[in-house]
Amino acid sequence: MTVPDTVLAELRTAASAASEKLATNINGYDVGERLGITDAFLICSAPSERQIGAICEEIERQLKTVHDSAPLRREGKDSGTWVLLDYGHMVVHVQHEQERAVYGLDRLYADVPKLELHLPEPPPTV
Predict the structure, then answer these.
(1) Where are the beta strands (DSSP E) in 1-126?
(2) Which range marks the domain in which residue 85 is found?
(3) Tell me: the pLDDT tens digits for 79-107?
(4) Which run of H or of E encompasses 105?
(5) Which of 3, 5, 29, 102 is the most exposed place for a label (fewest CB within 10 A)?
(6) What is the CATH number of the domain that holds 60?
C-alpha cells in the first residue's frame, strides 16, 4: 500500500463523515501508483441532490475540524449529481446512485487495492 498514514487518516475521517450523513456504498481506493497525481479516492453514493450536498458539507466540516484540511477544488456542486472534492493527496467523489452506476468508477479502479475504512457495520434491514 502506498497511501501515507496521514492521508489514510483523512480518508477515514471523510468516510466516517459520509457515513454519518447516510452515504451508501462507501469505498476507498489506493490509486497512487496508477494515477500518480493523488494517493487515494473515496467514492460514495446518495439517492438525492440534497443528501449529496449534506454529505459534502459534512466531509468538508470534519476534515477542516479534525485535520485542518480544505479542498483545493470543488467540482460539480451546482449539478448536484456528482461532486468532486479535490484535496490534492486524495479526491472524494460523492455521486448520485444513478451517476455511479453509469460512470462505474468502482469498475475502473477494480484492479487497485481497496482501503480499509473502519466504518461501523450498517444496521440490518428489516
Answers:
(1) 24-30, 40-46, 73-75, 82-86, 90-96, 114-115
(2) 5-115
(3) 889 999 999 999 999 999 999 999 999 99
(4) helix 105-108
(5) 5
(6) 3.30.460.10
- The residues near 47 (Cβ < 8 Å, ≥ 6 apart) are 24, 96, 97
Determine, yes or no, domain membership for 124.
no
Looking at residue 70, its pLDDT comes to 97
Instruction: Give CA–CA dist 20/63, Å, rounded.
Output: 14
- Tally the domains of the chain: 1
Cα Dmax for the chain: 43
Task: Please check whether residue 100 lies inside any domain of the structure.
Answer: yes
**Is 17 inside a domain boundary?**
yes
| DSSP H/E element including 18 | helix 5-20
pLDDT means per 10 residues, the chain with 126 residues, are 90 97 96 93 96 97 98 90 97 96 94 93 63
